[in-house]
Design a protein that fits this description.
By secondary structure, the protein is of the alpha/beta class. The chain has two domains: 196 residues, 3-Layer(aba) Sandwich (Rossmann fold), CATH 3.40.50.2000; 176 residues, Glycogen Phosphorylase B (Rossmann fold), CATH 3.40.50.2000. The strands form two sheets. Strands 3-4-2-1-5-6-7-8 form an eight-stranded mixed sheet, sandwiched between helices. The protein has a six-stranded parallel sheet with strand order 11-10-9-12-13-14, sandwiched between helices. Helix 3 packs across helix 5. The radius of gyration is 22 Å and the shape is globular. 49% of the residues are buried.
Length: 394
């Protein structure tokens, strides 16, 4: 064991707020929860282009739950060099601050580095699966070795959805604890439509369909856009892309613009800052939120829409199955029925107001009951205590 250790926690992630993406949205709150409940100081080590390549820039992240020391490492052109640099910085932080626990958020890179650094110092490690790391890592030759190492060497493994936990447990023959995402329902809540925002976007009198997050292939872009074009043939509809389009999907959107110019003219790509009040205001404009993901963890975007009492239509994959009981909290569409997406959208838009209100109220109630930040915080605090206790016992 690393003598004279901690207590103190090192969390390693690919991204942290204010960077974009689901990993950043997940890793910073996990660090804040740890800072609120775990003993000692919490250090969050994440990749960011804001730091010099291979070098480290230090900051603080202040959250209501706790104060986190944030260390950003600049990626290098080679993935191997990036992982080496991340590992070197992890070991420096462990030694400089006498940290006694390492937690990697996302298995194939951060989890790999977490298990390497922890093993080098005789410390316990935790690896948290987020979805893409397992879904893609199992079938990509360049990622599988990192995934396999992380999940076989970690002291404890967690998964963000039940389906993810079951699959990882079966493939790697080890227990995987389910710790889901949380949303603060006092912050993400129903808002009244802002008429000035409606007017500025040209939405007056129109049906508004929403999608939250960066639209890309994995999120069902190739199904959502044609479905929207079909809906536009039947009604005056607009599509809000709350979070815009991922850079590598811009060419596909341009192709859609050439094929369906009238529908494309009714798409609004909004690159929002992650301010809950702004997001809730945009969600309030939407008659229906559609999440046609092909694979999924447990997306905060769906949780936030549910907390804001928006009607949700999502694919029956991953964490969507944990969040939505079909017909009770929204609607689920099987992956092999995605060709029915235009009709499913129409069915949701035609629901009686009483049914809509019942579903959206039930969705918010589920978020409050099963996805409270205090519950996520307690789950990680218990896991951290178990990891430290297991090491002391050995």
């Amino acid at each position: 064991m690393h003598h004279g250790a901690g207590p103190g926690t090192l969390i390693i992630a690919e991204r942290a707020l204010p960077d974009r993406g689901g990993l950043a949205v997940a890793s910073s709150p996990i660090a804040a929860h740890a800072a609120a409940r775990a003993p000692g100081r919490v250090h969050l080590l994440a990749l960011s282009s804001d730091a010099p390549p291979g070098g480290r820039a230090a900051r603080r992240q202040q959250h209501e739950a706790g104060d986190v020391a944030l260390h950003l490492v600049g990626p290098l052109p080679s993935q191997g060099d990036t992982l080496m640099a991340l590992t070197d910085h992890a070991l420096e932080l462990i030694d400089a601050h006498a940290l006694d626990l390492v937690h990697g958020v996302y298995a194939t890179r951060a989890g790999y580095v977490a298990t390497i650094a922890a093993a080098a110092r005789g410390l316990p490690s935790i690896v948290s699966l987020r979805g893409n790391d397992l879904d893609r890592g199992l079938f990509r030759a360049g990622e599988l070795p990192f995934l396999q190492h992380a999940l076989t060497r970690a002291s404890f493994v967690t998964g963000v959805s039940r389906a993810l936990c079951e699959r990882a447990s079966r493939v790697f023959g080890r227990p995987v604890a389910h710790i889901t995402n949380s949303v603060d329902a006092t912050v993400f809540k129903p808002e009244t439509r802002d008429n000035s925002l409606v007017a500025s976007l040209g939405l007056a009198g129109a049906t508004v369909i929403g999608f939250a997050g960066e639209l890309r292939e994995k999120k069902g872009m190739r199904y959502l856009l044609p479905a929207f074009a079909e809906v536009c043939r039947r009604r005056d509809a607009h599509l809000l892309l709350i979070g815009g389009v991922r850079r590598d999907a811009e060419e596909a959107l341009a192709a859609f613009a050439r094929a369906a110019p009238e529908a494309h003219a009714r798409i609004h790509a909004l690159d929002y800052a992650r301010k809950p009040a702004r997001l809730c205001g945009l969600l309030a404009l939407c008659d229906l939120m559609v999440f046609p993901s092909l694979q999924e963890g447990t997306p905060n975007a769906v949780l936030e829409a549910m907390a804001a009492e928006r009607l949700v239509l999502a694919t029956a994959v991953g964490g969507h199955l944990d969040l939505i009981t079909h017909g009770e909290h929204g609607a689920l569409l099987p992956l092999d029925e995605l060709d029915r997406l235009p009709g499913a959208i129409e069915e949701m838009l035609e629901l009686p107001e009483e049914t809509r209100s019942r579903m959206t109220a039930a969705a918010r109630a589920r978020v409050i009951a099963a996805h409270a930040p205090a519950d996520e915080q307690a789950a990680y605090a218990e896991l951290y205590a178990r990891a430290r206790g297991a090491t002391r016992a050995s």
